[in-house]
Amino acid sequence: MIRLKLMGNNMGLFDGFRKERLVKMAHKLFYQGRYSEALDCYDQIIEIDSNHAEVWYGKGAVLENLKMYEEALGCYDKAIDLDPNYGNAWEGKAIVLFELGWPDEAFKCFDKALAVDPTIPSFWFNKGLAFANLDRFNEALGCYDKALELDPNYGEAWNNKGAVFRRLDEYDKALKCFDKKLIINPKDSVAWYNKGFALGKLGKFQEEIKSYDKALKIDPYFSSAWNNKGDALNKLGHYQEALECFDKAIEINNGYGYAWNNKGDVLNKLGHYQEALECFDKAIEINNGYGYAWFNKGLSLAGLGSYKEAIECFDKAIEIDPDDVETWCNKGDVLKKLEKYQEALKCFDKALELKPDFEPALKAKKEILRKRFN
Asked: Which CATH class is domain 254-321?
């Protein structure tokens, strides 16, 4: 969800003590996240005087945070009717239009806000976030750069710029952005997590783990950090430590399918196939379309000698992702064990069609052909 830069201190003065008190109370409740109570205050103010754009804007911001987007849109429109040059109201309208699935109209409103005042960093930031959510990454980067040109200490812009580079697989650039965010706020657990993710993609697993440790020191209940730390430890072959991390992630969030799958992956490597199978079943129960869990379940079943059931799992994984080389190859391996060589060759050929230099498929295919001609 696009996050609105909340209403600042630009609300006009109201005649009468009661209106002033209600305005201050509405602000306070808003920033405390007590949105229903804030909404009640704004309604009382509007009953007293309905001709202040700032109050309609404030009510719209509350409704937006309550995800009542159509109602918020009506409030932002009312604020704009009262003050057509109210940039924050145009920005708020843009955000709720985007949330309602009308991106073209949203961008027109962002442009209206920027026409009112192109020096407000949040206008550029939220426009960039909308572009990023549409995978229009170059345009998103342009907006984040503009926001950072206006405010070099805009931490969320650095973080989101890094996230775009992450989506583009440009991890060195992403890392620099996350480091900038951490200079501004070294107690941001999400920034430490994002830095760890980028380091992992660069193969720097020890540094990755240190970043997750930083995140977990700030937020011990950060389940994704526990999961990713476990994944890094798994890659380093530290299986028991990895299992402890996955267990911690699952303890925090029992519905965390990735953590269940990753725990099962480690158990597979340790040869504990039955325990692994239970983990994959849990991951699939959470998300039946989780192809990698079906693949791993197939590995567990193959390890237990249940080859027919393993093939069924590989077929399910292929149905979800027909371009996964390892699934085709492992299906071929199981068929080879069952001496169904012709079917196995078709699987290896498919794997090699997807990745011509995939060594396991090349080797397995040669073994079958050697047997057939000897």
From this structure: mainly alpha
